[in-house]
C-alpha cells in the first residue's frame, strides 16, 4: 500500500488488476449457495404435489441440503487448504451444478432428496473456498474491508432474492427451474474463475480427518432421521430410540476422536472457551426455530391462504428487511458500547415474542395485521442476535484457528436448520393428525376440519419454536460473559454464511 502526494491511498503494486472482477465471480458463487437455502422453500408445495411426497417426508428437501452442508463444512474448509482454494472452488461449482440438474430432473422424492444432499456436500466445498479466495485476492486491509462489505451485503440480501426468484420461477415456469437456474450461474462462475482468480498452492504434508467427518456427520444424520421417523412411528418406537441412541454414540465418539486425531477436524480448544461455546449453542438454538418457521409459513401462505408463489415470496420481504436492519443498523452500532449478551438476550426475547404473535394464526388470518407484525419482530430479534454472535465467537482467535472458528459458527447454523426443520415438522404433522382425529365427527366438514388441523399443527410447532428461542436467550445470558470491546479496537470478523 502506498500514499500519493494528495494523501490518497493506492493499492499495492503487486495487486491483481482484475481483482474486482474476481470479486464478482466469488459473489456470484456465494449467491448461488444462498439462493438454494430459500428458493426451494417457495417451490416445495408444488414439488410435493408433483412427486407425491408425504407431509412427514417433505422436510427432507430442505434438511438433506442443510445437513450435508453443515456436516461437511469443516471438512470442506480443510480440503480447500490442502488441495488449493481455486481448484476446490471450481470443483465445488461443477459438482453443485450437476447436483442441481439432477434435482431438477427428479422423477421421485428419493431422487430429489439425494440431489439436495449432493448440493449440500458441494456447497460445503464451495463456501469456505470462496471465502478464502476473497481473503487471498484482497491483501490490502482497506480494500479487503470494502470487498467483505460487498460480499456480506449480497449474502444478506440473497435470501430475499431467493424468495422472489423462487416465486417467479415456480409460478411462471416450473418448480424444477428453482434447481435448473443454478446451472447457467455455475457455468459463468467456472469460466470466470479460470480467467480471473489466482491462488497459492495447497499445503503439503497435511491430512484430512476423514474418521472425524464420518463420525460427526453420521451422528447428526442419525439424530435428524430419528426426528423425521418419529412422525410416522411415534417417539417411543424402538427404531426412533435406536436412531437417537446411535446418533449420540457417534457424536460422543466424534469428541473422543477429536482429542486423539493427529489433525482434528474441530480442535476442541475452540469450543472449550465459554464465550465461543455459548455463541455456537445460541446460534444453533435460534436457527432451529427460524428454519422451522420458513417451512410452515410457506405452506400456510400458499395452501391455507391460497397465495401464489410470487406473492408468498414477497410476503417474506419484511422478515428479511428486519433481519438486515437489526444486524446492520442496530447491532453494528451498539456492539462497540454494550456487552454482546445485552444484544443477544433481548434479541432472542424479541424473536420469541414475534413467534408467539404467529401462534394466533387461523385459517383466515389477515397478513397485514396478524402475520407481518410477527415476522418483523422475529426478524429484528434475529438481526440483533446474529451480529454479536459472529463478532464474539471469532474475537481473539489465533490466526491459524480463524477459519475453523468461522466454519464452526456456520456449521452450528446449518445443523440448527436441519434439526429444526425435522423436529418442528414432526411436531406439526403429529399435532395436525391428532386434531383432525378428535374433531372430525361430520364427514361433510372434512375439508374445513383438515385445514383447521393443519393450522393447529403449525401453531403448536411455533409455540415450541418460541420456547426454543427463549432457551437460546437464557444460554446467551448465562454463558456469554464477554465485555463490550474497547474503543478503538478492531477485529477482522469472518463473514457468516447467511441463514435466511
TrEMBL record:
Question: In what way does this protein cross or attach to the membrane?
Answer: Multi-pass membrane protein
In the record, what terms sit under GO molecular function?
A: transmembrane transporter activity
Q: Where in the cell is it found?
A: Cell membrane
Query: Major location, coarse class?
Result: membrane
Q: Where would you find the membrane-spanning parts of this chain?
A: 20-40, 60-77, 89-111, 117-136, 148-168, 174-196, 208-227, 239-257, 278-301, 313-335, 342-363, 375-398, 419-438, 458-480
**CC annotations in GO:** plasma membrane
| Residue span(s) of domain Major facilitator superfamily (MFS) profile | 22-485
Annotated Pfam families? MFS_1
Q: Which SUPFAM superfamilies did the record assign?
A: MFS general substrate transporter (SSF103473)
**InterPro entries from the UniProt entry:** EmrB-like (IPR004638), MFS (IPR011701), MFS_dom (IPR020846), MFS_trans_sf (IPR036259), Sugar_transporter_CS (IPR005829)
Q: Which Gene3D superfamilies match?
A: MFS general substrate transporter like domains, Multidrug resistance protein D
Which UniProt keywords are given for this protein, alphabetically ordered? Antibiotic resistance, Cell membrane, Membrane, Transmembrane, Transmembrane helix, Transport
Q: Which GO terms describe its biological process?
A: response to antibiotic
| CDD domains, per database record | MFS_MMR_MDR_like
List the protein's name: MFS transporter
Origin organism of this chain?
Streptomyces guryensis
Amino acid at each position: 500500500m502506498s500514499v500519493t502526494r494528495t494523501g490518497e491511498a493506492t493499492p499495492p503494486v503487486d495487486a491483481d488488476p482484475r481483482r474486482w472482477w474476481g470479486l464478482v465471480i466469488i459473489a456470484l458463487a456465494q449467491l448461488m449457495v444462498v439462493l438454494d437455502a430459500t428458493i426451494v422453500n417457495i417451490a416445495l408445495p408444488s414439488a410435493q404435489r408433483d412427486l407425491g411426497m408425504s407431509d412427514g417426508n417433505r422436510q427432507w428437501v430442505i434438511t438433506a441440503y442443510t445437513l450435508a452442508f453443515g456436516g461437511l463444512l469443516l471438512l470442506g474448509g480443510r480440503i480447500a487448504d490442502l488441495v488449493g482454494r481455486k481448484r476446490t472452488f471450481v470443483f465445488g461449482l461443477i459438482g453443485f451444478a450437476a447436483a442441481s440438474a439432477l434435482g431438477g430432473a427428479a422423477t421421485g422424492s428419493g431422487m430429489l432428496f439425494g440431489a439436495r444432499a449432493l448440493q449440500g456436500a458441494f456447497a460445503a466445498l464451495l463456501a469456505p473456498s470462496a471465502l478464502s479466495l476473497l481473503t487471498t485476492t484482497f491483501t490490502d486491509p482497506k480494500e479487503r474491508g470494502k470487498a467483505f462489505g460487498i460480499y456480506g451485503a449480497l449474502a444478506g440480501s440473497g435470501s430475499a432474492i431467493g424468495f422472489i426468484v423462487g416465486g417467479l420461477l415456480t409460478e411462471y415456469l416450473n418448480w424444477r427451474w428453482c434447481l435448473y437456474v443454478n446451472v447457467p450461474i455455475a457455468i459463468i462462475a467456472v469460466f470466470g474463475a479460470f480467467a480471473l482468480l489466482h491462488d497459492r498452492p495447497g499445503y503439503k504434508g497435511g491430512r484430512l480427518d476423514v474418521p472425524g467427518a464420518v463420525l460427526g456427520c453420521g451422528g447428526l444424520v442419525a439424530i435428524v432421521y430419528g426426528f423425521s421417523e418419529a412422525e410416522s412411528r411415534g417417539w417411543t418406537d424402538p427404531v426412533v430410540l435406536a436412531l437417537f441412541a446411535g446418533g449420540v454414540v457417534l457424536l460422543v465418539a466424534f469428541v473422543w476422536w477429536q482429542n486423539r486425531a493427529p489433525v482434528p477436524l474441530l480442535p476442541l480448544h475452540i469450543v472449550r472457551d465459554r464465550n465461543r461455546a455459548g455463541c455456537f449453542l445460541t446460534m444453533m438454538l435460534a436457527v432451529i426455530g427460524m428454519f422451522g418457521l420458513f417451512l410452515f409459513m410457506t405452506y400456510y401462505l400458499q395452501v391455507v391462504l391460497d397465495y401464489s408463489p410470487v406473492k408468498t415470496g414477497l410476503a417474506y420481504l419484511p422478515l428479511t428487511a428486519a433481519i438486515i436492519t437489526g444486524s446492520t443498523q442496530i447491532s453494528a452500532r451498539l456492539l462497540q458500547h454494550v456487552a454482546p449478551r445485552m444484544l443477544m438476550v433481548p434479541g432472542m426475547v424479541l424473536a420469541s415474542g414475534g413467534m408467539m404473535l404467529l401462534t394466533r394464526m387461523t385459517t383466515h388470518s389477515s397478513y397485514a395485521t396478524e402475520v407481518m407484525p410477527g415476522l418483523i419482530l422475529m426478524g429484528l430479534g434475529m438481526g440483533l442476535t446474529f451480529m454479536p454472535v459472529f463478532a464474539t465467537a471469532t474475537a481473539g482467535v489465533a490466526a491459524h484457528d480463524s477459519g475453523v472458528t468461522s466454519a464452526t459458527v456456520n456449521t452450528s447454523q446449518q445443523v440448527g436448520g436441519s434439526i429444526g426443520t425435522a423436529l418442528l415438522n414432526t411436531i406439526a404433522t403429529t399435532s395436525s393428525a391428532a386434531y383432525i382425529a378428535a374433531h372430525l365427527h361430520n364427514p361433510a366438514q372434512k375439508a374445513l376440519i383438515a385445514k383447521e388441523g393443519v393450522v393447529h399443527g403449525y401453531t403448536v410447532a411455533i409455540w415450541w419454536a418460541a420456547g426454543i428461542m427463549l432457551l437460546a436467550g437464557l444460554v446467551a445470558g448465562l454463558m456469554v460473559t464477554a465485555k463490550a470491546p474497547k474503543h478503538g479496537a478492531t477485529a477482522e470478523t469472518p463473514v457468516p454464511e447467511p441463514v435466511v
